[in-house]
Amino acid sequence: MGNTHPGATSPFGMVSACAYSGAYPTGYGRYAKNTEGVPEDMFGRMQASGFTHFQQSGTGAIRKYYNYVRVTPMVQPLDDLGQSWALEDERAEAGYYAANLATGIRSEITVGEKVAVHRYTFPDHHSARLVIDLSCGGLAIDLGRTVPLRAQIESMGHGRAQGTVVMEGVPLSVYAEVDSPGWRQMLWYDRRLIPGGTRLDFDSIRHTTLRPFGMLFMGAARAGQTIEVRLGFSLRGCDQARRNLERECGAGQSAFETVRARTRSRWRDHLGRVRVEGGTDARRTVMATALYHSLIKPCIAEDESPNWPDPGPYAFDVCTMWDIYKTQIPLLSAIVPDRAGDVLESLIRVCEEEGNFPIGYRMARGADRFFRQASALAHTALADVHALRRPGIDWSWALVHMVDDLRRLYGEDFWEHGVVHPITHTLDLAYAHHCTAQVARALNDHRLADDLERRSRDWINAFDPATGLLRDSEFYEGGKWNYSFRLLHDMAGRIRMAGGDTAFTAMLDRFFGYGAEPVKQPGRCPDPIEMTAGYALNRFEGLNNEPDMEVPWAYHYAGRPDRTAEIVNAALTWQFGTGPGGLPGNDDSGGLSSWYVWASLGLFPVAGQNLFLVSAPAFDRASLQVEGGEFVIETTGHRESSISVDGIDRDPPPQYVQSATLNGRPLHATHLNAADVHHGGRLHLRLGPEPSTWGQRIRPPSLSDPHPKERR
């Protein structure tokens, strides 16, 4: 289902807001927790008990994080808080979400970078209520609830209140202004009002002692009367939350339309940095949606780190690097380089303060490093940015952390033995050594670079020469075949070990199911025996598994870009659509959507190698606004094709690149330097219905090439 939500967001903003039902995994919707097959219903309708803040986007087993500060408009007694009402007439735009509750209340939400503004239109009622619950968090699934450790709330009168809750070790502060003239303002605890009370303090909260608590505003409402709720957030206390609110909303004035317009403008600017021409309405819709989902996470909160006092970017919802380092971070680096720089600067600071580069980093103190998933992925992104000579990062200092991080966790065993299990970490660490060597050499530390490069050649220790596949080991969310075809820094050596181009291509063909019977997709609650049999096929899982995302482009290194074109065309046609199920798996903070953007453009970034691979695009013409101006991909002979949104078996045949030029000069290779893209230029592709000899002779560069600097 993609696991996304339609709530209000701002590009890379700290705050999101959406209707809350407690469903898996974002808190929005009606599905129960599941990891295989079609999801089961948790609720029989779309419903909400209020509207919460801070949601994940497209992740998998997130369990319990976020959905804090629930705002509930009511015409029922406070005893009914927590009850859910049917959602009707939902509407979503970039930066805006609205729905009617079955109670007759119209609810609208918009967000800025660090604020949320709610607007509620009530029916005629003698005792309407606006309830802010600070005890709420997590999901309504087993083990899904988040309980605050400590909390403090203060009611200051005149529609103003503030509070701080410590969730997962992080202090989240909110400053609230409620525009409700004539309404009473009170605190409440355990669904009981505290008349005259102005402060609540909880020094120690446990699951067994938690009772809901928060703020309440109550009074008579005329039909059509609107109440505006302005919330400023901070991870550095209530005073900073108030300053954030005043900066984005102004002081004590209606701000809904102002914030909505500003966020809409911000989205228009970001989404306008990739433009396409041609294609069907459905294909353009999927492309625009994919770009939107690519620009929501990570959250970048300037001067908001709760873990160190200094100013600068603080990025959370890096969830996880395993999901985003191959596709999303290269996309951000291309079209929003300042934001990509902020993410990397924040990761360096995390390493400095907490001792390692995180694989995953949430708004949670010292939690979920995901070290089993992968190793040393930040090195890849840092090497790419360094190769582009981007300012703003102290590279000598960054190199210190890159080198030190290589020797932590699994890296210690790799350093001593040149191989480590799980075996995929051997590939991660060898690749990270190669990336770090490039930075060290550019900084003129040649002795260090030579040592790192020597160790990077230990990738070969991960493979069994008898099979050409990875050695037997444990594998995270995949198997030996999924991981055996990832793009390494020495693909030429990898292919030689597999027996050469023909043998390697045959292995890829088997993985992608050329000549095989179709695979039946699992339905609702699939039997474990069925799933085991499916995994035993050792087949491509269709982009819903991160190790598979780059594999279609492995054909380029064997001189078969025609195969890449076939696989990518099939994926773009059959695996993405405009309706429910329109994403072939978890969107994973935009990682999968970023894949779609790149594949539709006919480009794929080889993260860590300052390289793009070229294939047939899905649109007649496209352009990216990059640091150097505009990079244009234009075609001759492009044929429009539909995506399979209605299940009709139309299966458009792929197109193949016949020849290419870059800035008017012939391009005989299937790859570009990343600088060619980031500096701006024009790539022209002549397409045709049959494979050609284009790209068969000159392969993308590899570490063991006799002339590795020859690019095209």
From TrEMBL:
Swiss-Prot/TrEMBL GO biological process terms: carbohydrate metabolic process; glycoprotein catabolic process
Database matches in Gene3D superfamilies: 2.70.98.10, alpha-1,2-mannosidase, alpha-1,2-mannosidases domains, GH92 mannosidase domain
Organism: Actinoplanes campanulatus
Domain Glycosyl hydrolase family 92 N-terminal: 2-234
Example of a GO cellular component annotation carried by this entry: cytosol
Stored InterPro entries: 6-hairpin_glycosidase_sf, GH-type_carb-bd, GH92_N, Glyco_hydro_92, PNGase
Top-level lineage group: Bacteria
Pfam families, sorted: Glyco_hydro_92, Glyco_hydro_92N
Region of interest called Disordered, as start-end residue ranges on this chain: 688-712
Protein name: Putative alpha-1,2-mannosidase
Residue ranges annotated for the Glycosyl hydrolase family domain, each copy included: 240-688
GO MF annotations, alphabetized: carbohydrate binding; peptide-N4-(N-acetyl-beta-glucosaminyl)asparagine amidase activity
